[in-house]
């Protein structure tokens, strides 16, 4: 099958030729004819399968009936609404829709939070047929009467599972209530939990299910491997693997924002071109990091799930899980970054003793045992302990070979504000307590405490007391 077989308008064909697309991907081959017929669709497809074109090409085709070059905003009501969970995905989808509709008079606009509302407001007020939005910011615009949803005839929920994970259900319900009852609905999700099915039942009408891969199936072309190391050797191992395999264009997943920042900083200290992308970065910082990564100015993007989900970065040869995800389904999403569009890819995961259960959950979900990697040739660097430790916490005698305890809580609290950590998951260090950033010279007493307990996991209170020099008085 070729794109020419769908009977799409010559303006769309031209755009596809400009993109270099000749053959539709399996999800496109299935979804495009169904959407063109006006049916609701429930799509089981991961990012990287071409699902964006799968829904946006027929949307553009159907909306062409209304396309016009009038300057009047009234002639350009919002007719298609595409909802995405993250800003990055919104931007990415918008770029695709823009590219596919570039030779038509249809207008597109993307709205998402974390940016000035003004340019978005101006674009909305000029009139726009296709709006790509994150739910919260869309509702802000609705409240400010910058947008009317009264003429929406097509609704897409992209990455619906992630929207539920991120707590968008109430926003989605509010948005759905603002739409005309008569409309076409398309929902895409990589996974189908009971909650997703419930959402689908509540807003899809007699949907056709299109599926390209069994849900929770890992990409066939991805070679997976897991390495077990001590928790405090994980960073060394990432650096070792990056060097040994001469990896460029790698996404490394971290479960926490602070973990992502630290790892990126650590890799930079090793002379690598790395940057972190997570929910605490400003929109501009995230975009800049992403752009630099796409241009090859950065080789390693260290990301949290929320920041990385749905990113369209092609030719990714490898993803690394610095932390195993708390949610096994996230493993499937993560490794979906590689092995795309026919290319093969590597998915490397690193875990320690305490992650055995997480690994078991993943293997149960994907119904595979992931091969255990051989670590001969890897020697964790002990020199870095002193070098990294700018505050002198480990310069005490005997501490140079002591494992670093980056993720073992020393009294710091997890940052629960942005919800990147799942409820019930182990609390990990998200925010550095400013106390630890103060210059610190170990007193004789604390040095003794350190030396006395070089490898034991520190209990938060005790460790704090030790660092304060309050445990043992000489
Ligand atoms: P998506 O799953 O929609 O994020 O798409 C993944 C990647 O595949 C994007 O970079 C698209 O530009 C690309 N793509 C989508 N459809 C096709 C196609 N039919 N042929 C080649 N590349 C495609």
UniProtKB/TrEMBL annotation:
Keywords: ATP-binding, Cytoplasm, Helicase, Hydrolase, Nucleotide-binding. GO terms for cellular component: cytosol. Pfam families: DEAD, Helicase_C. Residues 1-29 form the DEAD-box RNA helicase Q domain. Residues 221-386 form the Helicase C-terminal domain. Residues 385-396, 403-433 have a biased composition (Basic and acidic residues). A motif (Q motif) lies at residues 1-29. It catalyses: ATP + H2O = ADP + phosphate + H(+). Residues 372-461 are annotated as: Disordered. The keyword Zinc does not apply. Residues 32-210 form the Helicase ATP-binding domain. InterPro entries: DEAD/DEAH_box_helicase_dom, DEAD/DEAH_RhlB, DEAD_box_RNA_helicase, Helicase_ATP-bd, Helicase_C-like, P-loop_NTPase, RNA-helicase_DEAD-box_CS, RNA_helicase_DEAD_Q_motif. One of its GO terms (biological process) is response to temperature stimulus. One of its GO terms (molecular function) is ATP binding. Its EC number is 3.6.4.13. Residues 442-461 have a biased composition (Low complexity). It is an enzyme of class 3 (hydrolase). PANTHER family: ATP-DEPENDENT RNA HELICASE RHLE, ATP-DEPENDENT RNA HELICASE RHLE-RELATED. Belongs to the DEAD box helicase family. This is DEAD-box ATP-dependent RNA helicase RhpA. It comes from Pseudoduganella ginsengisoli.
